[in-house]
Design goal:
alpha/beta, 3-stranded antiparallel β-sheet, globular
Length: 532
């Protein structure tokens, strides 16, 4: 790299994303102590974003793909789905921080691209680490998972913890790919790894935040419990992993990474705060209640995000801090419109009418819109998010039978199928846990090592290898039963562990099946267009 220092080398993937860029800026503050390697797509936007850092490092910009390096910074302009590019980035690494992902809704519109980034890209990183001299014993890898892995967690199961069942919501291909990517990490031979399951990350850049507005926002029930975090806190926490010593019990564990009590709210409450940024009075003024799904999204409060914070000390922002930051970052014209709307009721009504029409167009004209599914008779989508057409049609207007938006307790704590207070587990504990999942632990002996791969069988007869940590402590189970296709009604009948997160908002008599190609109904839909 032309540095000539004894600094440790940190590789950061996904540095141009909202969390990744905040992580990069934190790393840049530490460049006296760490040399930095980035793998970035050679897009015009990324070239522009990192030009000032190249200049500060004395790097001469290059066109297209290639490698550029200077004082303390090396950039591999390439593609994480190409192993040779990943190996070039990981070469000489001491740390690998991975903030890279193709997220929803793009992951749903382009599922093959999501698979390439979120699964193949992770396998490329693990392969590249293994290829380095003593890589599996030396290089420390921080993975980022997602709250979407655990799927729909409406009250009374709204407060979750690591080890709860994984349940990618129907049609959520992003969650499917993230489960597969995380499983590859947990089942790897790396000596030092951690998986941070990120909650909804709220960008502090106003343009980034407003770019998130998409019909997917209406997939979320209004009483969804959210424990968000800001992009800057998420990036800060990711980089703080560098302070974890090798002998810490932090390693080889999965964590829920939420923003803590000051970041908790309902989906309705968050929407209210977000709309007020634009001078809009209420959710009711610009949205119809039936636009919002009744189930089948994700998000939850975290029982255990305090544990993550005890290691990474990243809790800094509150919801009000985020609102203040985004408001200050908004363009002058947007600020002026919001100011006038708040000051003059007649002007506010105009803005609310414009916003309502925009929202209605997303809901009714876009293939990913809940209203579009109804008018175009997409029965499977209606079934997944509303149960059936009659339930959708029966949703009252605002003010009638609104579910409690803030739960008055922590709800039901899920059973993991074994004695979690037991200091050292035995084979009998694994057998009980497997039986609670409708299956069996096939291994006849076990030395007590949570990271020793054992043989298991699920209720459907699939035989697979898995580490006790992955299964008992992180919520993974049979890789062959992970969607697509989605056959959760059947799985819940056979798997009591999974049934805990299915029957709170599904009926016993439901028997739905969503084939692998069910994703095709919105594949290729443009984020900003109708998708027709």
């Amino acid at each position: 790299m032309g540095i000539g220092s004894n600094n440790e080398t940190v590789v950061l993937f996904g540095a141009s994303g909202s969390m990744g860029y905040e992580a990069f800026k934190e790393l840049w503050k530490r460049r006296a102590f760490y040399d930095i390697i980035l793998l970035l797509l050679p897009t015009r936007a990324d070239k522009k974003l990192f030009r000032k850092y190249e200049k500060e490092a004395g790097i001469q910009p290059i066109k297209g793909k290639g490698v550029s390096a200077g004082s303390g910074l090396k950039i591999v302009w390439g593609d994480a789905t190409k192993y040779q590019d990943v190996e070039e980035a990981v070469r000489g690494a001491d740390w690998v921080l991975n903030a890279m992902a193709l997220i929803s809704p793009l992951a749903d519109y382009y599922p093959e691209a999501a698979r390439c980034v979120n699964i193949d890209g992770i396998n490329n990183i693990l392969k590249a680490i293994k290829a380095q001299p003593k890589g599996t014993e030396h290089i420390k890898y921080i993975h980022t998972g997602t709250v979407a892995e655990t799927g729909d967690r409406l009250p009374p199961i709204h407060c979750g913890r690591v080890g709860d069942p994984l349940k990618p919501s129907i049609y959520d291909y992003y969650a499917v790919t993230k489960i597969a990517g995380e499983r590859a990490v947990l089942e790897s031979d790396l000596k030092y790894w951690a998986s941070l399951r990120m909650t909804f990350i709220m960008p502090v850049d106003s343009k980034d935040y407003f770019s998130l507005w998409d019909p997917i926002m209406f997939h979320q029930p209004i009483n969804t419990c959210m424990e968000n975090t800001t992009s800057r806190d998420a990036g800060f926490g990711l980089v703080n992993c560098l302070d974890i010593p090798e002998d810490s019990d932090f390693w080889r564990r999965a964590y829920n990474m939420g923003g803590g009590p000051d970041m908790r709210c309902s989906a309705y409450g968050f929407m209210t705060k977000a709309l007020k940024l634009g001078g809009i009075s209420t959710v009711e003024a610009v949205m119809e209640r039936k636009w919002f799904g009744l189930r089948n999204f994700h998000m939850q409060y975290y029982e255990d995000s305090c544990l993550t914070n005890s290691y990474l000390n990243y809790w800094r922002d509150s919801l009000d801090d985020w609102l203040d930051t985004v408001q200050k970052d908004m363009a002058f014209g947007v600020k002026m419109i919001a100011f006038l709307a708040r000051k003059f009721p007649f002007f506010q009504k105009i803005i609310e009418k414009i916003t309502y029409n925009r929202m209605r167009a997303m809901v009714e004209n876009h293939k990913n819109g809940t209203g579009y599914w109804f008018t175009n008779h997409n029965a499977q989508r209606i079934t997944a998010f509303y149960k059936d057409t009659l339930t959708y049609q029966s949703i009252p207007d605002w003010g009638a039978d609104v579910p409690p938006l803030i739960p008055n307790d922590d709800g039901i704590r899920l059973d993991h199928g074994y004695d979690e207070e037991k200091e050292k587990l035995e084979l009998d504990d694994l057998q009980k846990a497997a039986a609670f999942r409708g299956g069996e632990c096939l291994s006849q002996t076990w030395n007590g090592d949570l990271y020793q791969a054992l043989s298991w069988e699920c209720a459907s007869g699939h035989k697979f290898l898995g580490k006790p940590y992955s299964i008992l402590k992180a919520g993974h189970w049979c890789p062959d039963c992970v969607p697509p296709p989605w056959d959760f009604d059947q799985q819940a009948k056979l798997n009591p562990f999974f049934a805990q997160v299915w029957y709170p908002n599904h009926d016993l008599e439901e028997n739905n099946y969503y084939p692998e190609d069910c994703l095709d109904d919105i594949a290729g839909a443009d984020q900003s267009g109708s998708g027709n």
